[in-house]
């Protein structure tokens, strides 16, 4: 694996109106080079559960995509929050606390020597992790 896809990239790939350059960048990579974090799964499932409160039909569609497509596609490329990640995240919180999800994504990338693929470059770059913005490719 070379790249850790941030939640905004995964969400963009799901959208029919998603940025063509993001899709093109992902399509140009080997699937084996792409990973996601359990943090992305948390963020997406939380979004689906929140959506279900106001638009159950749309939430059901997204849940089907999540369960039937995303989870199987990344079944062997979903990285956990393990001891190595936890220790990297702890370092990122000193001296100044970092946003929790960003720190977990960055810590996962650091522990696994991955480049974070994201639109949220500013928050991730300040952790020292290498980032790639496919919207600017």
From TrEMBL:
<feature type="domain" description="PIN">
    <location>
        <begin position="3"/>
        <end position="126"/>
    </location>
</feature>
<dbReference type="GO" id="GO:0046872">
    <property type="term" value="F:metal ion binding"/>
</dbReference>
<dbReference type="InterPro" id="IPR050556">
    <property type="entry name" value="Type_II_TA_system_RNase"/>
</dbReference>
<keyword id="KW-0460">Magnesium</keyword>
<dbReference type="Pfam" id="PF01850">
    <property type="entry name" value="PIN"/>
</dbReference>
<dbReference type="InterPro" id="IPR002716">
    <property type="entry name" value="PIN_dom"/>
</dbReference>
<comment type="similarity">
    <text>Belongs to the PINc/VapC protein family.</text>
</comment>
<dbReference type="InterPro" id="IPR029060">
    <property type="entry name" value="PIN-like_dom_sf"/>
</dbReference>
<keyword id="KW-0378">Hydrolase</keyword>
<dbReference type="GO" id="GO:0004518">
    <property type="term" value="F:nuclease activity"/>
</dbReference>
<keyword id="KW-0479">Metal-binding</keyword>
<protein>
    <submittedName>
        <fullName>VapC toxin family PIN domain ribonuclease</fullName>
    </submittedName>
</protein>
<keyword id="KW-1277">Toxin-antitoxin system</keyword>
<keyword id="KW-0540">Nuclease</keyword>
<dbReference type="GO" id="GO:0016787">
    <property type="term" value="F:hydrolase activity"/>
</dbReference>
């Amino acid at each position: 694996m070379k790249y850790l896809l941030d939640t905004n990239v995964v969400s963009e790939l799901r959208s029919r109106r998603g940025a063509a350059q993001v899709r093109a960048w992902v399509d140009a990579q080997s699937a084996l080079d792409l990973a996601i974090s359990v943090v992305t799964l948390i963020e997406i499932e939380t979004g689906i559960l929140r959506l279900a409160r106001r638009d159950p039909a749309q939430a059901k569609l997204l849940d089907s995509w999540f369960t039937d497509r995303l989870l199987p596609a990344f079944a062997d490329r979903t990285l956990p929050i393990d001891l190595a990640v936890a220790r990297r995240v702890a370092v990122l919180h000193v001296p100044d606390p970092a946003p929790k999800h960003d720190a977990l994504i960055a810590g996962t990338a650091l522990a696994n020597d991955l480049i974070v693929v994201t639109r949220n470059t500013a928050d991730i770059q300040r952790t020292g992790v290498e980032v790639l913005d496919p919207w600017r490719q």
